Amino acid sequence: MAFLVGGVICLIGQLVMDLTKPTITPGHILVGYISIGAILSGLGLYQPLVDLAGAGATVPLSGFGHSLAQGTLKAVETSGLLGAISGGVEATAAGITAAIVFGYVAAVLFNPKG
Fold first, then answer.
1. Domain presence at residue 62
2. Residue 75: Cβ-neighbour burial (10 angstroms; 0-12, 13-18, 19+)
3. Is residue 97 part of a domain?
4. What's the gap between Cα 101 and its chain centre?
């Protein structure tokens, strides 16, 4: 199920980019998927997909939006309004750090062609 759900999520993004070129860019897809994941998570609709597909739903960008929303909701319960500001970043800190570190390492090790 992870392969199927993750593949469908990616297929939808690719189709949107291919069928709306040049209007919808990869940046639009990135922001859209994160926003959709956060909205569906806030409405309680994303967790059943995570339960069904596991990493197929948590690894794509919509899963990052889900993590942001869940972290924010949990932090609001424990810290109030301050949790709304800090909860999402706190919940996704490991993923954000990994993206920064791996991006830096790739930039140091490889020369872009273009």
1. yes
2. buried
3. yes
4. 18
